[in-house]
Hints:
This protein has helices at 15-23, 47-61, 100-106, 112-122, 127-146, 149-158, 162-174, 177-204, 212-215, 222-239, 245-269, 272-299, 307-337, and strands spanning 3-11, 28-33, 38-46, 68-73. The chain has 338 residues and is of the alpha+beta class. The chain has two domains: 3-85, 2-Layer Sandwich (Alpha-Beta Plaits); 112-337, Glycerol uptake facilitator protein, CATH 1.20.1080. It has a four-stranded antiparallel beta sheet. α10 (222-239) packs antiparallel against α11 and α11 packs antiparallel against α12. It is elongated, with a radius of gyration of 23 Å.
Amino acid sequence: MTAQRVEIFLPESEIARLEQVVARHCRRYWREEIPGKDEKLTCLVQQRYTERLLDDLETEFGQVPRLSIVVSPILAAIPTIAETVESELPDRHPVRQRTALERWFTRDRLSTDELYEDIEDSLRLRPSFVATVLLSALIAGLGMVSGQVAVVIGAMVIAPLLGPTMGLAMAATVGDARLGRAALSTLAFGTILGLLAGMLVGWAVEIDPGVTELRNRTLVHPADIALALACGAAGVLAFSRGTSLSLVGVMIAVALVPPLSACGIFIAVGDRDLALGAAYLFFTNLICVNVAGIGTFLLQGLPPRNWRITGGILALWLFLLALLASALFGTFGLGVLQ
């Protein structure tokens, strides 16, 4: 069962109209009196319908000054709230019948409001963000220099670039320029911090460019594109279901932080070619993660405000990916022929 508890506070004069709205979305609800002139209506709603309920509530009661809504997850309910085809509400705009695959992907996605709240909180430039970016890049850099895979994996758990990466993909999907600017600025700031941390490692530690863990972050293979695409899709699927950010970060940060730190290390030691190789891997992975992220958000039914904007941004990411892939496969092909 994937359901949520929604508590709605409104003046008593609005309760009758509220019950009509709630009845369209919820299988179970009850009314409570609270001190003062307001009343509370609590309902249990399948998670896939939470967003529709919140949209309708905002449309109907958005101008009511004392409107207040609280959404919280439910661990268990008796009787169980069924997640079946029979319990499915009709589509608002029934152009065609949804497939079983579409129902499966959208059944337990968090509402757009909840996704916004999770992402926007991670886009604030706080001292903790600065610290986690620096620590993650330092740990990854030291792990690569010493050839210790476990240390590099440990750096991934911190996952500082998860929020900006998910924010960028979500902003492109829904066409939110404000969210996109915030995500891009935070990601750029984190990227600079990661480079500086890598440079610090390069200055402080004797570097052997031949170490496998370090050298691998300067090479791009066709499999790396598939890895980054899988990371982006898996990250969005887990993130949109409320999975712990640290766990999701393992999938995202593994594709971003190590090459970023490696780039800083090679800049510090003055090896321009290897630094460019690491930067190439970083940007290839970043583009792949966003392409897969946008596609997965759309597959989950995240509603774009303007399909032209969303399609244009996705086309731009795909164009950049095609350019990088063309260069990659050209170099790879030449290497095979030689």
